[in-house]
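Q: Here's a chain of 621 amino acids. Please give me its 3D structure as tokens.
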Amino acid sequence: MYRFPRLAYARGSSRNPDFLYAAPPMFACAASCKESRKKLVDLTRPNRESGGGIDGRLTAMAKLAQQPWLLGIASAALLLLPFSIIGPVPFWRTFFAWFAFVPLFYGLLSKQNLRRKRALLYGTLAAYLMGFLWYVGNCYWIYQTMLYFGGLPPSISAGILIAYSMVLGLYFAAFGLLLTATAKAFRSPRYALLASPFFWVALELLSSRLTKVPWDLLGYSQIDNYLLTSLAPFTGVYGLSFVLVAGNALIAWGLLASTPQRRLIVFVGGLLVALVLQNGDHFAPPAAPVEATAVLLQQNLNVNEDNRWPGAEYEQHVNQFVKLSAHTCGPHLAGMPELDAYPVAPDCPTVPVTPGLIIWPESPAPFLDKDSRLLNALRTVALSMHAPVVAGSTSLDSNGARFDVYNSALFMAPDGVVSDRYDKIHLVPWGEYIPYKRFFSFAKNLTQAAGDMTHGWRRVVFSSGGHRFGVFICYEEIFGDEIRQFVLRGAQLLVNISNDGWYGDTCAPWQTLNMARMRAVENRRWLLRDTNTGLTTIIDPYGRLTASVERHARTSLAAKYGYRSDLTFYTRHGDLFAYLCGIITVGMIAAALRARLRRPTAASRTLNSKRMAGPAKAHVE
């Protein structure tokens, strides 16, 4: 029986890919066949003279809007909004954290990108661009600190900011690579979106361990969201980051779903989840009980001035500090300064109360641990107020022919004796020490009293009057796994002394404040945060600011606080949740590699198709 030859079908132009035409039978004239094809293809081409040019431009603009690198820029801009740009962050702006990653997810996991031969490269570079731009915008204060306070030229100051952003942007690049590779391995963006929160938390953990700069992790943007911060005593800040990336992934899935109905359902569902969780500020916990009063001195010393204080100038400053330390009651602000704070004028008792603790912050003051003038001043405060004193100072310990220099916190007991000292363990790179100093000798004058310090070795917990205090200094506040060690060693109260004068009026003081607040939440401890120029405040175990003073004022804050002895899950086990995310990430990478290796290669698919087409071709012939 005669078999008609199979009709060969060809696709039309790229303007109408679904148009199909049938080629003439194989026994027809080749010239006629060629002419027919030409006519049919011409029919599918748009008439540019009748408006096709406008359509072409619109199509080009639509394609441009889907470029991964452009969507990475959009994500970087959105991710800046939930964090401090100049001053404190209004709560409404933190909502942008729920969809800041959506443009990036769409750009990396869309069909247009995944079908490209260089999809992995495009995805990695788009995410890297997002990370680089975000770090430049979030940490622009580095330039100002290096320029105005470090005395470096503008070109070198900008170079340090760019190099910093380029290095830390690599974590974003790794995120983009993992997402794109997972989607290609499983031939679906769903698996990549499902894995995205695990990938992100694992990379945040890596940043704290490898480069040791876990600055403004995503979860810090929700420090005022009391519903989400209830995770912190179990997971640390990483749990909040996990939920935020999962929310972004859910919304992105709504844009990438296969059918319009599914896209609508998932997208609307993702927005509703984000809206519900964003209203976590309405779930404020009850007020934490208080039982003691603290006095926090804010010295307000200019870090750019000569603070050597020759002659009688030393005594003038110290005497003023001693007087301010005796104020155990006075007006203050309740809430976040420069945002929602309101003045409070308490009813002060006739007989001054005995404070539970008096604190002098880290500052550029010429305070040395063995200077008799400083020790006499602190002794006067301790004996007159019958209270222990914590004071920031520089400590010098002889080490053969040289001295080791430490950034320290002295602890003077109520009897006027220095009972212990904590030396800062986690020093600031480029500020308190110069990494690879031989290669970066130009940065040796970056700060006035720093640049060649020695890090401490012991996490000291001070004790007085039946209570125990854990003190950490400045930059150490961004390391949650380290701060919990003080509480694990018995600290019932956390104290943070810092000199934020190096940041000027940039976003950095507000960023460090939110990171310090998270330490209070993770460990469910009161935190007394005493700074040189502000923000000086008292933070309750739920991260709320109960009392503050204005920035850039020489004053003292007297307000109440409490002690707690319970241990949270995070205090006991640290970053266990983040490590679990890291383990799951490794497992997902292994699964993606296995799926990719088991898939036939392009060469094997071509060979198989030839084997299957061979008998049919012979039959037609």
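Q: Can you summarize the key feature?
A: Residues 183 and 189 are 5 Å apart (CA to CA).
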